[in-house]
Amino acid sequence: MFSQQCLGQSWYLGCEMQLFWCSPFLLLPMWHLRHRLGGGLKWGLCACAVVLAGAWVTIATLSARREWTSNLFLDDA
User: Is the full-model pTM beyond 0.70?
Assistant: First the structure.
């Protein structure tokens, strides 16, 4: 199925870098709104839920359209 697999360390570093760049957009609103609008924790959790739901929808859509399996080690051969 897959002729080449990604190197696990580089995949992890790529994910870590994306989280590093995206985390200020989630943490700064929580910090600045901690005393306004009913507390920053509530708004921060809502923002995290929106990001998580968006990731789930993206993964589900890509998996359905490209017919990806849930197991990378499953071989059709």
Answer: no
